[in-house]
Design goal:
Number of helices: 13
Radius of gyration: 24 Å
Helix content: 25-40%
CATH class of the domain at 124-152 and 210-329: Alpha Beta
Strand content: 5-15%
CATH architecture of the domain at 124-152 and 210-329: 2-Layer Sandwich
Distance between the termini: 45 Å
CATH topology of the domain at 124-152 and 210-329: Nucleotidyltransferase, domain 5
Number of strands: 8
């Protein structure tokens, strides 16, 4: 017998989003870990908000919304808010009922600005790391560092002379001829994002307005312990790495793996001064490497060289799934905040795959 299509809506609905989400859905352990981390940040949220006035969007909901944006590669706040209106899985993740109204995208962006001006993303990352430590997933002795370029949200046309007159635009996207011009970061700056810098990845590569993201990874399971964004300069990777290594807790000797870009006498000496053994890849092309046989003859040197390559998986995930190949914000502070949250999301996915939160 042929069924008849019933186009009338039910008057009452007595179900919750929980009933729609499978028991083995991969978001369940991620939600469990995120909720535990956010609960420990309740005191920080209390200090951020006034005790009077109109209630805002709960900061816990804001942060989990941004996690959804990263995990599902949602390209904008407007699209995120739109999907929250009809996606039951997203509503369940945020703890919203089916009949609960969704805020306007402009309200979401305005409330988000309050979080970006704080260190909440960094503290959230540390709470996630603490859960990994409880599950004994972290190495205390072996680490890797690396950096990656993040293209700034600014056009190369905005890179103009610092002391010159503003360029007269002939339209929304007028043509500009740069041939024969010498443009450097000392004499030019972007009018769209002044903190970004012109940088190229290597010889033969095009120069782009960029920032540089840095991570410190432990080598046991490839989890990120520290992350930050700086201006893109020739020494930014080594400077940020030394700062992150300095912040490793404890006084025990550690090993630090890194690629050839870190093979300089200054950086190697800095690591040795911090009781860190530099397992840095040798750069001996037309030069003398700062890493000699005292380091390379140990079996751990080769192991570190293999383990450090996993840090590229983190950058690949953050740029593709986390949509950070090109920055979503302008200014180093905002880009760093979102980069740190994206790294925390990566840790959540990695820890779920390792079995955390599945019990």
């Amino acid at each position: 017998m042929r069924g008849v299509e019933n186009k009338s809506d039910a008057l009452f609905l007595y179900v919750s989003p929980e009933s729609f989400v499978p028991a083995d859905h991969p978001l369940r352990p991620i939600r469990k870990m995120a909720d535990k981390a956010l609960a420990s940040l309740s005191g920080e949220f209390e200090r951020m908000y006034s005790q009077t006035g109109r209630p805002s969007v709960p900061p816990e909901v804001l942060l989990k919304s941004l996690l959804l944006q990263i995990l599902f590669s949602i390209r904008s706040n407007r699209l995120l808010v739109e999907q929250l209106g009809y996606n039951i899985l997203y509503r369940w993740f945020l703890g919203l009922s089916l009949e609960e109204g969704i805020w306007d995208h402009s309200t979401f962006s305005q409330n988000q600005e309050r979080l970006i001006g704080t260190d909440i993303a960094g503290q959230f990352l540390q709470r996630i790391i603490a859960q990994a430590k409880e599950s004994r997933l972290l190495s205390k002795d072996h680490f890797s560092v690396d950096g990656t370029l993040i293209e700034a949200w600014a056009s190369i046309k905005s890179f103009q002379r610092r002391d010159g007159e503003p360029r007269n635009r002939a339209g929304r996207n007028d043509e500009v001829d740069f041939h024969g011009q010498s443009r450097t970061n000392d004499t030019h700056a972007s009018t769209t994002d002044p903190e970004s810098r012109l940088y190229r990845k290597g010889k033969g590569k095009e120069s782009k307005l960029s920032y540089m993201g840095h991570t410190l990874m432990e080598n046991r399971n490839g989890l990120v312990l520290d992350a930050r964004v700086t201006q893109a300069t020739g020494t930014a990777e080594r400077d940020a790495a030394a700062d992150m290594i300095q912040n490793i807790p404890g006084r025990r000797r550690v090993t630090v793996g890194a690629d050839k870009g870190y093979d300089t006498e200054g950086f190697v000496a800095t690591l040795r001064g911090m009781s860190a053994t530099p397992h840095v890849a040798q750069n001996d092309t037309n030069r003398r490497s700062a890493i000699d046989g005292r380091t390379t003859h140990h079996p751990g040197y080769e192991i570190s060289g293999k383990a450090r390559k996993r840090i590229e998986e983190i950058f690949g995930w953050v740029k593709t799934i986390g949509t950070l190949r090109k920055a979503r914000y302008r200014g180093a502070e905002k880009v760093s905040w979102y980069f740190t949250l994206a790294v925390a999301a990566y840790n959540l996915v990695r820890m779920r795959n390792l079995g955390v939160g599945t019990a």
